[in-house]
Amino acid sequence: MKAYRVPQLARKYVEYDMIQQHTEMPAFPDSRTRLLFVFLNRNMQELHASEDELYALVTSLLQMGLDTHDMIDTLSGIRSPEEMRSRQLKVLAGDYFSSRFYQLLALAGRITIISKLSDAVCEVNAGKMSLYWEMKHLRLDAAQYLSQIVRFKKELFLSLTSLVAEQDRDVWEQLLHEFALCDTLVEEWDKRAKPDKSRFGYMFWHVYNNGDQSELALLSETGIDTEAWLSLVQKYKAEDAIMDKLRTAVLHIRQILSDDQNTGTEEFGRMLEPFLKLLNSPHPVVREG
Question: Which of 3.60.15.10, 1.10.600.10, 3.30.1840.10, 3.40.630.40 would CATH assign to domain 6-280?
């Protein structure tokens, strides 16, 4: 199998000093991108040279564009010049990443793939509009939230399933779901101690679905303070809920790999490394104050 170098190829499109210095960027979708590359590479007899790398690259850039736009805050109110600059850069960066997918595919003459990925973007955006409406009206539970976010994280990659060898498609879709779930859970874990970033995230819904009336009223406010938020996180063991789900997802991946005799384990072991590192490292619960 050819070496995986998509993150290195993506750097020239995503690493700009001004963006990195003045705003936060989403993580590169490495596990899903690597997974797509592996399965496309296994079907190279049906693809042209380097198409596995090109398709993995453009899909990752498009995902970065969507993820960057998701980080734009929509709260009303006065912002500092630094906050305004950060927000504007996210808008521009997301548009830029998205435009690069189109440019690279157009230059390669792969118009069909542009159509597949564009249709997937439309599906994701339509789904997000419905989800945001449910969030606004506080009509979600934690399981529904997680299911929808995982769906959004795998939609672009799933749109290229027709390029995966037919005999591999079932295991490809199973693994894509589990890796998208792992990526989602890690994101939710990383923002657990910040109420502004955790608002309407998995931990929010986990607490909201279990809290009493006074706690629900507190969560319904737009500006719950950090101390109150961390108290609820501890009370309802929201961190444990994320770790348990991550542990289960990793077990599912290992089971899928053990059941599929055609799938090698070395490349998938690399994909699992960041999730295993988090599971195996000490991670004391967040504390109040």
Answer: 1.10.600.10
Name the amino acid, one letter, at 76: S
CA atoms within 13 A on the CB side of 72: 16
Cβ neighbours of residue 99 under 8 Å, at least 6 residues apart?
none
Each of the 289 residues of the chain gets a pLDDT tens digit; together they read: 688 999 999 998 887 776 767 677 889 999 999 999 999 998 877 787 789 999 999 999 999 989 988 877 655 555 666 666 666 777 777 788 888 899 999 999 999 999 999 999 999 999 999 999 999 899 999 999 999 999 999 999 999 999 999 999 999 999 999 999 999 999 999 998 888 888 899 999 999 999 999 999 988 877 788 999 999 999 999 999 999 999 999 999 999 998 776 665 677 888 999 999 999 988 655 544 3
Count of alpha carbons within 13 Å of 44, Cβ hemisphere only?
Answer: 12
Query: Angle formed by the axes of helices 169-190 and 266-280, to 10°?
Result: 30
Separation CA 231–CA 283 (nearest Å): 17
Closest CA to 55 of 64, 67, 47: 47
Which residues contact residue 46 at a Cβ distance below 8 angstroms, ignoring those fewer than 6 apart?
A: 163, 165
Contact 185, 249 (CB under 8 A): yes
Is this model's pTM higher than 0.85 or not? yes
Contacts for 112 with CB less than 8 Å, ≥ 6 apart? none
